[in-house]
Amino acid sequence: MITRVIRFLGTAQAIFLGIVTGVLLGWLMGPISACLRPLGDIFISLLKLIIVPLIFSSIVVGVHRTGSMARLGKIGGRTLLYYLITTGLAMLLGLILVNLIRPGVGVHLSHEAAPPASHAGSFQGFLGRLIPQNIFQAFAEMNILPIIVFAVMFGIALLTANRSAKPLVDLMRSTEEVFLVFTRGVMAYAPIGVIGLIAPLVGTFGFDIFLSFDKFILVVLGGLLIHACVVLPLVMKLFSNRSVTAYARSLQKPFLTAFATASSSATLPISMEAARENGISDETASFVLPLGATINMDGTALYEAVVAVFIAQAVDMPLTLGQQGIVFITAMLASIGAAGIPSAGLLTLLLVLEAVGLPAVGLGILFAIDRPLDMCRTTVNVWGDQVGCAVVEGKNNHGK
């Protein structure tokens, strides 16, 4: 039955129908809609099942496909430069909007229900975890950054090895292809899965909670909208010959999946398939997208910068220009370390607050309203990754 619906409507339209159905069921059922949560949990679990082997095989294959260390350096350099520039622009935009609109003025925050600080860790610990002591433990714990580092090193080793490495290269390519096929099977369940994600959210929190944080929500959504519809298209226009409108229209499936799951990592399989259907080379897609799903978090960086200044305004601790510069740098580094999972940005946010001496107040309320905002910023993150593919390929490659 589900397969027939997807064939009739198309995957993207079927997912959208699932989102609408989830909102209606949550509104009608109220808190009872929590009984639908297992449907969403199964969907997320299926996507997580794919993530690690797909990321590892894709990056290894992507590095090997470059063909030489010189080519790898060129692609890697363009990718990292793009990620740093767009993340910086997103945070700058967020800081400008939050200082102009001042959504925290007049808001009285409570010191209750702040999440435990142990989630945030430290920069030293973050850097120390980049090189895994036990790669199998990193696989088991889904510790994505060490897996990416190991995959890049493994790919470089295959790239510089002699022909004896060919069986391993073939194995990695076959693994990548198998898990892309696996992804198509999982997406047949997506319309049901998103109902289980959306309905409990609406049923538990309703719509009233948004009223007291209306200006804050306006700043966040406005910043995300400007970044997605102005900044990223402008960057793409400057460095790619693809049509921005046609390119964005072809990405409905990853956009809707990102919105429903609020997870860049969970969306990665769909993003990779969409990029290839859109004419992005395997070399670029296999390298840029897995890396972007972990370190390119434009929406998260913008959100963390806005929240830090919002809290400073709410507790009447205005930040100086120098302190906002610290917020800028810390939010960029924290967003790189944020896992591609729902609400991960709120956990790394504690690093940003600590860096400028702000109390972790009001985060209990932010947790309650975070999921809808997280769904929006994850969609922006995924759009940024796809624009990155077009930018890395440059103007020499034609596309849709």
UniProtKB/TrEMBL annotation:
- Which InterPro entries does the record cross-reference, listed alphabetically? DAACS, Na-dicarboxylate_symporter, Na-dicarboxylate_symporter_CS, Na:dicarbo_symporter_sf
The way this protein sits in the membrane is described as: Multi-pass membrane protein
Q: What is its main location?
A: membrane
The answer to keyword Transmembrane applying to this record is yes
Give the CC-aspect GO terms: membrane
Q: Does the keyword Transmembrane apply?
A: yes
Q: Which residues are listed as membrane-spanning?
A: 12-30, 42-61, 81-101, 144-165, 186-210, 216-235, 324-341, 347-369
Could you tell me which SUPFAM superfamilies the record lists for this protein?
A: Proton glutamate symport protein
Cellular location of this protein? Answer: Membrane
Q: What is the lineage of its organism?
A: Bacteria, Pseudomonadati, Candidatus Omnitrophota, Candidatus Abzuiibacterium
GO terms (BP aspect): L-alpha-amino acid transmembrane transport
Name of the featured protein: Dicarboxylate/amino acid:cation symporter
* GO MF term set: symporter activity
Keywords on record: Glycoprotein, Membrane, Symport, Transmembrane, Transmembrane helix, Transport
